[in-house]
Amino acid sequence: MLSIRNTLLPIALASLLLPGLHGQPTPITVQVGPGKPISPDLVGIFFEDLSYAADGGLYAELIQNRSFDYSATDHVGWTPLTAWELVERGGGQGSIAVETAQPLNPVNTSYAVLTVEKPGGGVGLQNEGFNGIPVKAGDRYDMSLFTRQIAGAAFPLTVRLESKGGALLAEGHLPAPTADWKKVSNVLTPTATDADARLIVLAGGAGKVALDMVSLFPGKTFHNRPNGLRPDLAQVIADLHPKFVRFPGGCLVHGDGIGNIYRWKETIGPIEQRKPQPNIWRYHQSKGLGFFEYFQFCEDIGAKPLPVVAAGVCCQNSNELVTHKYGIGQAGLPMDQMPAYVQDVLDLIEYANGPVTSTWGAKRAAAGHPKPFGLQYLGVGNEDKITPVFRERFEMIYKAVKAKHPEITVIGTVGPDPQGDDYTKGWKIADELHLPMVDEHCYKSPQWFWENNRRYDAYDRSKSKVYLGEWASFDDKRRSTLRSAISEAAYLTALERNADVVRFASYAPLLARRDHTDWTPDLIFFTKTEVFPTINYHVQQLFSLNGGDFYLPTVIGGDSAPSAPLAASAVGDSKTGDLIIKVVNGANAPAPLRITLAGVKRLPASATKTVLAGANPMETDERAVRPQSSTISIAPTFDYEAPANSLTIIRISNK
Ligand code: AHR
């Protein structure tokens, strides 16, 4: 899809042309003064359930395929019993099947039926979790399931956590099933830590019992929320201090065919009433992490919610596996379904912001959040192919939201690439409809990001604002490297310089499980027990922690804007009064700089300097390149040598 050219040569050539690299320091001049107002919310995150980011990732549920809904439509070779297996102990004999005749409810259609012919030492079923269930000694795990007795005498069930080899880690008992579906639960506390445990449900007598929604949830979740998030992953995201969270995607939003469009209403309420569905990334969405949990997470980390809904059309890459053709799969919801779809979008705003006396506000309150979530922004569409089918539906949604909720900023979409047909057509719609903001996407090489540093300088300030909703620098073989991270840092200086136009930017994708990575590069990798931020993570974090609300004109080497391999920006933060200078050196050699703070009236003798740098531009290991902070002496004009392949943040405190 993307062509990545070798970027070393042009950068090396450019370094020869820059004065600073011949021994004389390159001048960087920051004009200190009132500056230009910019978005204080520039850096946020893009969350999509891609590469097991939600199920098997941020969503803390430890049981895989808990409601026996997996199918070959989700993933080739999957069945409703994937991740499950029959257990027959001590001469026990039985079988498991999946049935749909008397489900728990109309959306949760399949369930397991355990038939025990000979109980022996116990017959039951075992779940392997997402490649093993990690448990910690002494921690609490809440186990629950729905049961229904189908035939035979009712007998209590035993639940166990065992090591892969069968050693007992924890055991509990559940009351005997009844003739109607009933939820039963127990708490399991393992006596040993095991990263690869199994959950086992055993029946002690002969008969037939139905089981569904088998869940094992850690007692410890982020902010102790029920049905909550994995704390280590949620924390590494919180540590980015994102100003906003875009959710739930990405392509996941517009889905693989119109039947797969993400419907927010199917993701709220009791988890057993949420409609599971295939994930466009060829796995499964339990929807356990739904819109309530997303809004709550935003609140917990102090970020603005930025939900995205489909524009009434599915992904243009739908059915690609069937047709083997790319980009021709867009279809629109039939027009007679559009009024109901538009109403769903309006109801989302009511769910987030409406009073508890409103229909959807009451549902939010019932979930435990009477206070509104303070929704201000709503994305409509995700890098859709811009066609008449799209436009007709987009306009319906946009006009309805604008009429009923003028307080909401609707963000339109201008295709998957920062140029080309969809980009041009998307911007035409934005101009004609006077959209407040559009979502641009940009996955390019490090070289592209250096070469396009001035891109937004030329944007017409009277047009729609920009949300750079998905962006990442792709190094060779779609890797993230120090070189790609530094090119992102350089681009972020350009985004800051233009943050009067570019209001938001989010690197994409955010999370990827190492054993289930569908897309690279990603900002944070993880396994079932560990978290691995990338070098690029630190770039996002440093810009997020050192953002401002006014931009101070910054000039390198006498130019009106920076060029490779140097980039710089300076912002002021009116809350703290701090002045923050960022300098990026993309060359493979140190860059001597002479920084002048023109017009500065008062200056402390020193400032905090944070440097992210490494000798090898192709470095991929974050442990080798971490930000280091120290003190630097400053003056109205001072010299600083920016290390090779580096981002430096100089924060001058007002205190
Ligand atoms: O970020 C990964 C994918 O890239 C998103 O789902 C999609 O919008 C884009 O093509």
Radius of gyration: 27 Å
State the helix count. 12
Gross morphology: globular
Strand order of the largest sheet: 3-15-18-19-20-21-22-23
Strand content: 25-35%
The low-confidence parts are: 1-22
Kindly state the mean pLDDT as a whole number? 94
Helical residues, percent? 10-25%
Major sheet details:
8 strands, parallel, barrel
> Which ions and ligands are bound to the chains?
alpha-L-arabinofuranose
In total, the number of strands is 35
Task: Give the termini distance in whole angstroms.
Answer: 50 Å
Describe it for me?
- It is a single chain.
- Helices cover 19% and strands 32% of the residues.
- A hairpin with a 3-residue loop joins strand 16 (277-279) and strand 17 (283-285).
- The longest helix is centred in the middle third of the chain and has 17 residues, at 388-404.
- The protein has 12 helices and 35 strands.
- The protein has 655 residues and is an alpha/beta fold.
- Helix 6 (338-353) crosses helix 7 (359-366) and helix 6 packs across helix 8 (388-404).
- An 8-stranded parallel barrel has the order 3-15-18-19-20-21-22-23, surrounded by 5 helices. Strands 2-27-29-30-35-32-33 form a 7-stranded antiparallel β-sheet, covered by helices on one side.
- The chain binds alpha-L-arabinofuranose.
- Alpha-L-arabinofuranose (AHR) binds at residues 48, 50, 249-251, 382-383, 416, 470, 508-509, 519.
